[in-house]
Structure formats: C-alpha cells, structure tokens
Fold this protein.
Amino acid sequence: MEKPIIIAMDFDTEESALALLDQLDPQKCRVKIGKELFTLAGPQFVRNVIGRGFDVFLDLKFHDIPNTVARASKVAADLGVWMLNVHASGGRAMMEETRKALAEYGNDKPLLIAVTVLTSLAESDLKEVGVDRSPLQQVSKLAALTRDCGLDGVVCSAAEASDLRAESGSDFILVTPGIRRPEDAMGDQKRVIGPAEAMRLGSSYLVVGRPITRAESPLQALDEFNSAVTGIR
Ligand code: C5P
C-alpha cells in the first residue's frame, strides 16, 4: 500500500516523540520532523527514527543563498531522509542548484519539494513584503517555478490542491496539512478538510499531527485515517 499519511512529530521532548514512535508502525505511515524537534534533538534523532524504519520528511524549509541550501540539503540526504523542503521564494538558482546537488545521490536521492506561500500570510501581509497579488495567484506562480526548476512537488493547502493538480499534472507531489475528521478538534487550524476529500482534490500525501499524536490510541487513529484514504488515489 502507498503510505499517504505523514505524521507531524510536533513534540517538545525527545522522549515524547519516541513514545509515539514506539506505538506506530513504519509500514503504515511516514513522519515529519520540523524545526522544533530538530532543533531540540538534532541529526542523531533523525538517524534514530530512520533506523526504526520510518521514512522521514525533514521539514526545515531551507531558504538561503543557493550554495548554502544545496550543501545543507546534501547533509540531509546523507542522513537518509525521504523528503526535504525549501522555500520556492528563494528563487530559481537556489532550487536548481539544490536539485542538481541531490541528483548525485541517484536512486537514494530524497524527494525535494517547495513551500510556496505560508498559509499564515494574508493578502495584506504579502503586500507589506512587496508582493502585489493574491496568495492564490502567488501560490500558482511559485508552484509553476518549482515545477520548472525540476523539483518533485510543493506543500499546499487543500483549497489549492485541485487547481495545482490541474496545472501540474499527475506526477507532481502535493503535500497537504490541515487535515481533520469530523470528530477531531480544530486546534489552531482555521480551514480544515477531511482525509478522503483532500485526496479527491488531488493531494498526494496528507500531513496529520494532533488528530493522531494526541489520540488515546495513535495506532487506531492512524488505521482510521488509512481506511479513509484507501483506494482514492
Ligand atoms: O496538528 P496538526 O494536524 O494541525 O499539524 C499540522 C502540521 O502541518 C504541523 O506540523 C504544521 O506546522 C504543519 N503545517 C500546517 N499548515 C501549513 C504548513 C504546515 O499545519 N500551511
């Protein structure tokens, strides 16, 4: 079975992250390690998680000069991560140089995706940083640039997924957070979507955090998410 669920490991101690991993099955999910846990527990923790058989999406959203991002991405590839990401607004040279650096890893190269526009930014925020178009227009422009630079996909909201799927073709990876079942608490998410619906709209992978990490039985919650998406894509 293709594993579309990526569990967001948003924890503030290594112990709590490991306690969750102890309950999960790497055949049934992948995991995302972001800035908080990485800053806390570091590359050794990433190696530990990979050693337990999990595919790791290293969500550090690199954004720097091309040489720095390409070199940092190679270090992530050396760790053995499955996927990593950069900010598309870092530009063509940054994305192309990083793609070329990772090509050296051949069949072991991690997937490289880009963040387009952070969903926390409204049109007024974009205006303030000199972008005079709507978030959706900017997402579409940066997704097109990402494709053109030969990256594997983008992170996007479910609201953007169907347009991006139509614009990008079937091979482009769309990774979608903000996923909730009807019974799940929203947390701080403002716009959420169900797992099956997100897949129907064109998502390739769903990032799910608290509905699984805070569930009484994370494995049971994961099984429910997997059942909901089975056979849709
Ligand atoms: O707990 P929850 O399911 O809301 O976690 C969602 C995960 O996806 C978090 O790690 C969050 O940082 C990430 N994310 C998001 N919205 C974005 C980009 C990333 O929720 N636009």
